[in-house]
Amino acid sequence: MTNESYQCIMAQRPEIMQASIGIDYSRYAAGAIAFDYEQLLDDSGYSIEVVREIQSRTAVGNTPLIELNNITQLIRAVSIPGHGARVFVKDEAANPSGSFKDRRASLPVYEAKQRGYSGVVAATSGNYGAAVASQAAKAGLQCIVVQEAFDSKGIAQPEIAEKTCACEAYGAEVMRLSVGPELFYVFLLTLKQTGYYNASLYSPYAILGIETLGYELALQTRQLTGRFPDVVIATHAGGGNVTGTARGLRKAGAVDTQIIAASVDLSGLHMASDRDFNRKSFTTGHTGFAMPFTTWPDRADVPRNAARALRYLDRFVTVTQGEVFYITEVLAALEGLQRGPAGNTSLAAAFAIAQELDEEQIVVVQETEYTGAGKHPIAQLNMARQMGIEVTRGDPHGNKPGVKIVIPEHPTQLHAAEVDLNQMRRSYIHHAIQALPDNQVLSEIDMEFLAAETRTNNAYVENVIHEIHRTS
Amino acid sequence: MTEPVKPGTWVEIYHVILDAGERAPKLPEDTRHLPLEMRMKGWLVETASLNEAAEVKTPSGRLMRGTLVAINPAYTHGFGGPIPELTPIGSEVRALLRNKGLFT
Fold first, then answer.
1. Nearest chain B Cα to A193, which residue?
2. Cβ contact (<8 Å) for A333 and B94?
3. A57: which residues sit within 8 A by CB, 6+ positions away?
4. Closest Cα to residue A277, out of A202, A347, A183?
5. Contacts with B91 from chain A: Cβ below 8 Å
6. Distance (Å, rounded) from C-alpha A260 to C-alpha A249?
């Protein structure tokens, strides 16, 4: 076994993490599995005012909130009379690298600079890589982005190819890998070899950077309409978008706003499968990340994930790939906004959810992203056809990930499918019990932690644990 | 034998990071039997030929080794042809609003 073998580097994970992010996570440990989440975030020392000031120096944030009047009219045209909430979108494509990920990258890169690191490394195939590269360019730091980029035939996912191009434009070094979870091994090895900073998507800094999104949209909505949003819908994958946005809303005083996560349904496709890799028309905002991360956040590239979606979610829905492509066309044709798929996932959900609400209520879709070659429905559907996937129009219920993409024929066919949050909570608690070290039992602190993690109470957690023990 | 490539040329190298037997446990069947491959770009350090060993200096200043696989590698992603299932959608929803007099 060489000192750079898979096993050897993975065994050094704690030391590499500690050196590359500078947070001693063991300080926050409590009980057998619990940790002090709020303290971990508070100790970063950034108030929301300071974060806004740091972000403003690189033109991050202060993006427009746009009312989608024509889409609201279309919603009302298919709603029962008196229904159809006003829909707004936060145009995050206006950030320097074209997505809300600039908020997420701003503090990690700022921290790296403050702490004297000469470069940053990020493991990401998506917008976050471009955001870190953009921020690093401005800060004068080196940047390495590790991507899962192509399958065993050498075929690149078009959206990831677009991100390679963007990262290289910002001067980053891009390590493009074939399919597999060992991307994390390459990430650790690169951190060790370079001594660069770990610009993780899941550090406290990354999440605090997103709080400004929720904060701004709450204040903008109130300024435009005289009230806070009734519903905010966030595209959901690893949980950072939901977590940061929800925390920012609360900091602005919007404590009654309902937080809904929306993910693209990619059920049945395996995230580590070489065959399935190019049969996904979406590279993020999908259930392949959302389900595992919602039910066990600590699978991330830091010891404790600061993105913990179940703490904040009121509701979780899925939409199909075809529905997102459909609403992407509608947004361009009715609102004059050509935007990428990530924000349009929550817009597809918003189209259905706004029909449940009254006309005076407000729904905010909390992000858009830029679009371009590769990162576009046309590119994705051409790739889908190349991979043998059937593309047709009809009822989106006929959608089958990896086999068939069905584009709706009429706006009445858009539907937000409910994910059972109680099932997510049970699954989370199940994972927590599996993570319990041998010979240890759950203490009172652990029970309170699990209740906070699942937004329930001790009795709920006890019931679930009892149920798990009874059936196992 | 291909033409030698001059130092300083922007190129792509290829390298197998993990052979099939060295990979992580619990991989799906189709991935398990494949190597973990890497491609990266940089400026060629010394003269080399296509499909032979080469060293590059990357944009972050690192020296990395692999097989030289492309010279001035192209970005080949694009939009491709329009999708017939998408092209009518804009007209359909505009007509729906116009017919009901709902355009704002």
1. B62
2. yes
3. none
4. A183
5. 333
6. 13
Count the Cβ atoms, other than its own, within 10 Å of residue A265.
Answer: 24
Question: In this complex, do B86 and A329 lie within 8 Å of one another by their Cβ atoms?
Answer: yes
Rounded CA-CA distance B104/B51 in Å is 61
CB-based contact B81 A382, cutoff 8 Å: yes
Give percent above pLDDT 90 in chain A. 96
What are A175-199's pLDDT values in tens digits? 999 999 999 999 999 999 999 999 9
Q: How far apart are CA A287 and CA A175, in angstroms?
A: 25
Six-digit token string for A246: 């929800």
DSSP category for residue B20: G
User: Which of B34, B43, B60 has the most A C-beta neighbours within 10 Å, making it the best mutation to test the interface with A?
Assistant: B60
Give the best residue of A2, A6, A146 to mutate against chain B (max B CB count within 10 A): A6
Using pLDDT thresholds of 50, 70 and 90, give the confidence band for residue A250: very high
A339: alpha, beta or left? (left if phi > 0; alpha if psi -120 to 50): beta
Instruction: Give the span between the Cα atoms of A165 and A370, in whole angstroms.
Output: 14
- Picking from B37, B60, B97, the nearest residue to A77 by CB comes out as B97
The interface predicted TM-score (ipTM) is 0.96
Task: Compute the mean pLDDT over every residue in chain A, rounded to the nearest whole number.
Answer: 96
HEC secondary structure over chain A? CCCCCHHHHHHCHHHHHHHHHCCCHHHHEECCCEECHHHHHHCCCCCHHHHHHHHHCCCCCCCCEEECHHHHHHHHHCCCCCECCEEEEECHHHCCCCCCHHHHHHHHHHHHHHCCCCEEEEECCCHHHHHHHHHHHHHCCEEEEEEECECCCCCECHHHHHHHHHHHHCCCEEEEECCCCCHHHHHHHHHHHHCCEECCCCCHHHHHHHHHHHHHHHHHHHHHHCCCCCEEEEECCCCHHHHHHHHHHHHCCCCCCEEEEEEECCCCCCCCCHHHHCCCCCCCCEHHHHHHHHHCHHHCCCCCCCCCHHHCCCEEEEECHHHHHHHHHHHHHHHCCCCCHHHHHHHHHHHHHHHHCECCCEEEECCCCCCECCECHHHHHHHHHHCCCEEEECCHHHCECCCEEEECCCHHHCCCEECCHHHHHHHHHHHHHHHCCCCCCCCHHHHHHHHHHCCCCHHHHHHHHHHHHHHC
